[in-house]
Amino acid sequence: MTVTEDKSVAERSMGLGLRWLNRLAGSDLLDRIRIRKGVERALFNTTKNGFRSATAAGRTFKAAQKLGKPARQATGKPRNLFDVTPDDEQQMFQEAVREFAAAKVRPAALAADADRSTAAELLAQTNELGVNMLGVPEELGGVMHEQAAVTAVLVGEALAHGDMGVAYAALAPGAVATAIGHWGTAEQEATYLPAFTGEDVPAAALAILEPRPLFDPLNLETKARRDGGDWVIDGVKSLVARASECELFVVAAETEDGPALFVVESGASGLSVEDEPAMGLRPASTGRLILDGARVPAGALMSEGGREAYVECVARARVAWCGLAVGTAQAVLDYVIPYVNDRVAFGEPVSNRQGVAFAVSDIGIETDGMRLATYRAASRADQGEGFSREAALARRLCAAKGMKIGSDGVQLLGGHGFVKEHPVERWYRDLRAAGVMEGALLA
Amino acid sequence: MINLEIPKKFRPLVSQANQVATEVFRPISRKYDEAEHEYPKELDMLASLIDGMNEGSDIGGAGAAGVRRESNGDGGGGNRNGSNLSTVLGIIELCWGDVGLLLSMPRQGLGNSAIASVASDEQLERYGGKWAAMAITEPEAGSDSASIRTTAELDGDEYVLNGEKIFVTSGDRADLIVVWATLDRSQGRAAIKSFIVERDNPGLKLDRLEHKLGIRASDTANFTLQDCRVPKEALLGSSDVEDKQGFGGAMQTFDNTRPLVAAMAVGVARASLEETRERLAEAGVEIDYTAPALSQHAAAARYLEMEADYEAARLLTLHAAWMADNGKPNSLQA
């Protein structure tokens, strides 16, 4: 399927919807994996929406329905065979996002990087693909029956192939939805999740990272203490996507009982944001969230799972960032291969030089390794297996190899790699983020 | 459905191979590292044991049972986990024990793999149960297998082989050597064929055994072939020079066997990591998978880096083998 620039987004969405429908209607896939209702709903949403130019700030979140206990996505059944092929549903998602990334995200990336902002329209279009509701349980309007870390990784990878900064800006709200869907109380789910399945998804951020050297997510300086019936939180969070637009935060803070996550609405007292321009991820308009005696009600605490849940949250975030790093690393590879084959020096393509050819194949090998390690961690998560080790190894790979790939991408283009005419310098800056970021996205 | 864990059906195999590595290989690993070129006689019993197990048991060795490509492709056949993957998993475990000893397993040579993969029924009958080494490399041609110089000339009912072969793993100990030779150098790859030469053929002269840095338990032989006569029936596969399948087929065998070599490295790497981790623990350094690497002990950070590289290498190897099992072209990944 090719995408032409002159097609409107609505048409494109229609095209997508019909494609999904065509492909799915005749098969028993939906019934087999029990998502027919959800996908039909997604199709309905995809086709009925136009796109919005702006979001309203500071909406009031109200519990729409009352659930007795929190709804949770099930973990998948253990899978017997070794397999590197995404299932049909995942391939559909992947294809849709890939295409969108090529047609819409990549062309917008240079300007978004320069402006330190992603156009609201582009964010809305991305959201229309359903990327921010992967962690929402079906009972609350989600489309995924089971946990969807692999799908989230595939989506992140595909989107970051377009641009990592735009991907961060677009996927950040989904992290909040996933956090609430996994660890939130019934009340929190009923209050906040419906907003993430609609057409007007709020800017939202999962804020774990703090601005200090050697930050350790298990050693938070942000503290939460009880005060009467409330929680009072003090601390600073760093590199928050679209901080000034956010209507909702999930904030990690240390309590007497260890690290915990809190749902904090942007209207809470004692909150402010500050611009924090960074080397990469510039389309995400990164900022700091300052909590100075921020006061939230007792119900803001996500009580599910305690420390274990928080550790899982940290690991899921790392896996998600790995997915983005894989996408951007692949973008580097896809860009340098034609370049080194076309670029002539000393009478022949530079790729005839081993120094060049080996560097390119190393990028290919490392990208594959990063991808497999990331998929393994995500797949274990979906099957309900422990995945801390796998997440740590994937992150270590993506941090070290990702930075090398970014650097080699610049080097292979020589002087041209250093200037903004080519995207490799941007990818170099973004790939450094994958080794630094904590929280912010979730697989 | 993405799943990168060891498939359930191969777990017994992995555990068997691990027992062999633990109980047989490791106790004699140092002995034969020091006693280079001495035949590890302990392996005879193991080989009989393996022969006695159900035929084509995957824990065999370096893919000696043959790794044939599956041709069902993606055409709806669904996902397959077959002999390529199981062999890789077995080798990882055995090489966690000792690589040199794996390469020394009687009747588990690379030549056996070639015979198992392409031999006719008569050849299988005739050469079954024997130990076959593989002779490809020459002093002037290694990885560039297409430019080998050893010649084969038809003389009546026999082929006459002339040339020099080096780096023949198990060349001294094997019963048979599968020798690559060209029927006509001017015809390039298509004319390259493989021939089964009995080890006691008078035209096959052992020049020397190499002294090596590692895999010392395994003998590495250099041969001269001087008017070495073999029956016409010793040619493996088709004798037709026009048949372009020959060389391509051989290279395809490499696509299947390269992951096996990678698996050897993966096995040793895991052994090293485990050893390192134990030593570090003794020194009071624990590895923490949740804390950032850079806020841990430098040795722990380095360990995490090594383990991450190991994880990537391991998954790349399994991926390449899985592609072979599923008939996907895997030259690149291999």
Mean pLDDT of chain A: 87
Shape call of chain B: globular
The number of helical segments of chain B is 8
Number of strands of chain B: 8
Write down the overall mean pLDDT of chain B. 85
Question: Helicity level of chain B, as a percent range?
Answer: 40-55%
**Strand percentage of chain A:** 5-15%
Helix content of chain A: 40-55%
- The CATH topology of the largest domain in chain A is given as Butyryl-Coa Dehydrogenase, subunit A, domain 1
Strand order of the largest sheet of chain B: 1-4-5-8
Cα-atom radius of gyration of chain B: 21 Å
The separation of the N and C termini of chain A measures: 28 Å
Largest beta sheet of chain B, briefly? 4 strands, mixed
The largest sheet of chain A is:
4 strands, mixed
The stretches of 5 or more residues of chain A where confidence is low (pLDDT under 50) are 1-57
Q: What is the annotated CATH architecture of the largest domain in chain A? A: Orthogonal Bundle
Spell the H/E element sequence of chain A.
HHHHHHHHHEEEEEEEEHEEHHHH
